[in-house]
Protein backbone atom coordinates (compact mmCIF):
# COMPACT_ATOMS: atom_id res chain seq x y z
CA UNK A 1 0.00 0.00 0.00
CA UNK A 2 2.83 2.40 0.85
CA UNK A 3 4.40 1.83 -2.58
CA UNK A 4 1.10 2.71 -4.26
CA UNK A 5 0.77 5.94 -2.26
CA UNK A 6 4.39 6.85 -3.04
CA UNK A 7 3.77 6.20 -6.72
CA UNK A 8 0.62 8.35 -6.74
CA UNK A 9 2.51 11.20 -5.05
CA UNK A 10 5.42 11.02 -7.53
CA UNK A 11 3.08 10.74 -10.53
CA UNK A 12 1.13 13.82 -9.46
CA UNK A 13 4.27 15.87 -8.85
CA UNK A 14 5.75 14.91 -12.23
CA UNK A 15 2.53 15.44 -14.16
CA UNK A 16 1.79 18.76 -12.43
CA UNK A 17 5.19 20.12 -13.44
CA UNK A 18 4.68 22.42 -16.46
CA UNK A 19 6.34 21.25 -19.66
CA UNK A 20 5.85 21.17 -23.45
CA UNK A 21 3.12 18.52 -23.23
CA UNK A 22 1.04 20.53 -20.78
CA UNK A 23 1.62 23.71 -22.80
CA UNK A 24 0.39 21.93 -25.93
CA UNK A 25 -2.77 20.73 -24.15
CA UNK A 26 -3.53 24.21 -22.82
CA UNK A 27 -2.87 25.86 -26.19
CA UNK A 28 -5.14 23.31 -27.90
CA UNK A 29 -7.92 23.91 -25.38
CA UNK A 30 -7.64 27.69 -25.70
CA UNK A 31 -7.30 27.76 -29.48
CA UNK A 32 -9.70 25.04 -30.58
CA UNK A 33 -11.92 24.24 -27.62
CA UNK A 34 -12.27 21.52 -24.97
CA UNK A 35 -12.40 18.58 -27.39
CA UNK A 36 -9.09 19.60 -28.94
CA UNK A 37 -7.61 19.85 -25.45
CA UNK A 38 -8.80 16.33 -24.63
CA UNK A 39 -7.41 15.00 -27.93
CA UNK A 40 -4.08 16.65 -27.16
CA UNK A 41 -4.02 15.02 -23.72
CA UNK A 42 -4.81 11.62 -25.25
CA UNK A 43 -1.97 12.03 -27.74
CA UNK A 44 0.43 13.05 -24.99
CA UNK A 45 -0.42 9.99 -22.93
CA UNK A 46 -0.18 7.66 -25.90
CA UNK A 47 3.38 8.93 -26.31
CA UNK A 48 4.03 8.16 -22.65
CA UNK A 49 2.44 4.71 -23.04
CA UNK A 50 5.00 3.85 -25.71
CA UNK A 51 7.69 4.28 -23.07
CA UNK A 52 5.62 2.37 -20.52
CA UNK A 53 5.62 -0.62 -22.88
CA UNK A 54 9.30 -0.07 -23.67
CA UNK A 55 10.12 -0.14 -19.96
CA UNK A 56 8.08 -3.28 -19.33
CA UNK A 57 9.66 -5.12 -22.27
CA UNK A 58 13.21 -3.88 -21.61
CA UNK A 59 13.48 -1.77 -24.78
CA UNK A 60 13.82 1.43 -22.76
CA UNK A 61 16.95 0.07 -21.09
CA UNK A 62 18.38 -0.62 -24.53
CA UNK A 63 17.59 2.93 -25.67
CA UNK A 64 19.21 4.53 -22.64
CA UNK A 65 22.28 2.27 -22.86
CA UNK A 66 22.86 3.19 -26.53
CA UNK A 67 24.21 6.78 -26.46
CA UNK A 68 24.01 7.28 -30.23
CA UNK A 69 20.38 6.17 -30.45
CA UNK A 70 19.49 8.20 -27.38
CA UNK A 71 21.10 11.32 -28.89
CA UNK A 72 19.30 10.80 -32.21
CA UNK A 73 15.94 10.63 -30.43
CA UNK A 74 16.87 13.76 -28.47
CA UNK A 75 17.69 15.64 -31.68
CA UNK A 76 14.38 14.53 -33.22
CA UNK A 77 12.62 15.88 -30.14
CA UNK A 78 14.47 19.19 -30.39
CA UNK A 79 13.49 19.54 -34.04
CA UNK A 80 9.88 18.87 -33.16
CA UNK A 81 9.95 21.49 -30.38
CA UNK A 82 11.28 23.97 -32.93
CA UNK A 83 8.46 22.98 -35.29
CA UNK A 84 5.91 23.49 -32.51
CA UNK A 85 7.39 26.94 -31.86
CA UNK A 86 7.10 27.86 -35.53
CA UNK A 87 3.51 26.67 -35.94
CA UNK A 88 2.39 28.50 -32.78
CA UNK A 89 3.79 31.90 -33.80
CA UNK A 90 0.89 34.39 -34.17
CA UNK A 91 0.38 35.56 -37.75
CA UNK A 92 -1.10 38.94 -38.64
CA UNK A 93 -4.40 38.60 -40.48
CA UNK A 94 -6.75 40.84 -42.39
CA UNK A 95 -9.90 40.00 -40.49
CA UNK A 96 -11.27 38.03 -37.57
CA UNK A 97 -12.21 35.09 -39.76
CA UNK A 98 -8.66 34.71 -40.98
CA UNK A 99 -7.33 35.14 -37.47
CA UNK A 100 -9.64 32.38 -36.30
CA UNK A 101 -8.42 30.14 -39.10
CA UNK A 102 -4.83 30.80 -38.09
CA UNK A 103 -5.63 29.95 -34.47
CA UNK A 104 -7.19 26.68 -35.63
CA UNK A 105 -4.18 25.94 -37.82
CA UNK A 106 -1.73 26.59 -34.99
CA UNK A 107 -3.27 23.79 -32.92
CA UNK A 108 -4.33 21.50 -35.77
CA UNK A 109 -3.91 17.77 -35.25
CA UNK A 110 -3.61 18.12 -31.45
CA UNK A 111 -3.61 14.33 -30.93
CA UNK A 112 -0.75 13.68 -33.37
CA UNK A 113 1.32 16.60 -32.10
CA UNK A 114 0.78 15.53 -28.50
CA UNK A 115 1.91 12.00 -29.34
CA UNK A 116 5.01 13.18 -31.21
CA UNK A 117 5.96 15.58 -28.41
CA UNK A 118 6.29 12.78 -25.89
CA UNK A 119 7.40 9.88 -28.06
CA UNK A 120 10.38 12.00 -29.18
CA UNK A 121 11.36 12.69 -25.56
CA UNK A 122 13.75 9.92 -24.41
CA UNK A 123 13.92 11.47 -20.93
CA UNK A 124 10.58 9.77 -20.30
CA UNK A 125 12.28 6.40 -20.79
CA UNK A 126 14.99 7.48 -18.37
CA UNK A 127 12.32 8.50 -15.85
CA UNK A 128 10.60 5.13 -16.00
CA UNK A 129 13.89 3.27 -15.72
CA UNK A 130 15.09 5.22 -12.69
CA UNK A 131 11.89 6.01 -10.79
CA UNK A 132 9.38 3.26 -11.55
CA UNK A 133 11.54 0.34 -10.30
CA UNK A 134 11.99 2.14 -6.97
CA UNK A 135 8.24 2.46 -6.49
CA UNK A 136 7.26 -1.03 -7.61
CA UNK A 137 7.81 -3.72 -4.95
CA UNK A 138 10.83 -5.97 -5.53
CA UNK A 139 9.97 -9.05 -7.55
CA UNK A 140 6.76 -7.54 -8.90
CA UNK A 141 5.34 -9.14 -12.02
CA UNK A 142 5.40 -7.57 -15.47
CA UNK A 143 1.66 -6.99 -15.18
CA UNK A 144 2.10 -5.03 -11.96
CA UNK A 145 4.79 -2.91 -13.59
CA UNK A 146 2.41 -2.29 -16.48
CA UNK A 147 -0.38 -1.37 -14.04
CA UNK A 148 1.85 1.25 -12.41
CA UNK A 149 2.72 2.64 -15.83
CA UNK A 150 -0.95 2.87 -16.77
CA UNK A 151 -1.59 4.62 -13.46
CA UNK A 152 0.98 7.21 -14.44
CA UNK A 153 -0.82 7.55 -17.79
CA UNK A 154 -4.16 8.10 -16.06
CA UNK A 155 -2.67 10.71 -13.74
CA UNK A 156 -1.12 12.57 -16.68
CA UNK A 157 -4.29 12.46 -18.74
CA UNK A 158 -6.34 13.81 -15.83
CA UNK A 159 -3.92 16.68 -15.13
CA UNK A 160 -3.46 17.69 -18.78
CA UNK A 161 -7.18 17.50 -19.54
CA UNK A 162 -8.02 19.66 -16.53
CA UNK A 163 -5.36 22.20 -17.55
CA UNK A 164 -6.75 22.30 -21.10
CA UNK A 165 -10.30 22.83 -19.83
CA UNK A 166 -9.10 25.47 -17.37
CA UNK A 167 -7.27 27.30 -20.15
CA UNK A 168 -10.41 27.24 -22.29
CA UNK A 169 -12.53 28.62 -19.44
CA UNK A 170 -10.06 31.40 -18.62
CA UNK A 171 -9.44 32.43 -22.24
CA UNK A 172 -12.41 34.88 -22.40
CA UNK A 173 -11.01 36.70 -19.36
CA UNK A 174 -7.99 37.77 -21.41
CA UNK A 175 -10.27 40.12 -23.35
CA UNK A 176 -10.22 42.42 -20.31
CA UNK A 177 -6.43 42.61 -20.20
CA UNK A 178 -6.17 45.28 -22.89
CA UNK A 179 -2.78 45.52 -24.64
CA UNK A 180 -1.41 42.73 -22.43
CA UNK A 181 -3.54 40.17 -24.27
CA UNK A 182 -1.47 40.82 -27.42
CA UNK A 183 1.52 39.35 -25.59
CA UNK A 184 -0.23 36.14 -24.52
CA UNK A 185 -0.21 34.43 -27.97
CA UNK A 186 3.57 34.74 -28.00
CA UNK A 187 4.00 32.74 -24.79
CA UNK A 188 3.74 29.24 -26.40
CA UNK A 189 6.29 29.86 -29.19
CA UNK A 190 8.74 31.51 -26.79
CA UNK A 191 8.44 28.64 -24.31
CA UNK A 192 8.92 26.04 -27.06
CA UNK A 193 12.04 27.88 -28.29
CA UNK A 194 13.46 28.03 -24.74
CA UNK A 195 12.76 24.32 -24.23
CA UNK A 196 14.37 23.45 -27.56
CA UNK A 197 17.43 25.58 -26.75
CA UNK A 198 17.74 24.01 -23.28
CA UNK A 199 17.46 20.50 -24.74
CA UNK A 200 20.05 21.30 -27.41
CA UNK A 201 22.41 22.66 -24.75
CA UNK A 202 21.97 19.41 -22.84
CA UNK A 203 23.03 17.46 -25.93
CA UNK A 204 26.10 19.52 -26.86
CA UNK A 205 27.30 20.44 -23.35
From TrEMBL:
Q: Which UniProt keywords apply?
A: Cell membrane, Membrane, Transmembrane, Transmembrane helix
Membrane topology note? Multi-pass membrane protein
Q: Membrane-spanning residues where?
A: 42-62, 69-86, 145-166, 186-204
According to its UniProt record, where is this protein mainly located? membrane
Q: Where in the cell is it found?
A: Cell membrane
State the Pfam families in the record.
LysE (PF01810)
Specify whether Ribonucleoprotein is a keyword of the entry: no
InterPro entries, alphabetically? Answer: LeuE-type (IPR001123)
PANTHER family, alphabetically? ARGININE EXPORTER PROTEIN ARGO, ARGININE EXPORTER PROTEIN ARGO-RELATED
* Name of the protein in question: LysE family translocator
- Native organism: Streptomyces coerulescens
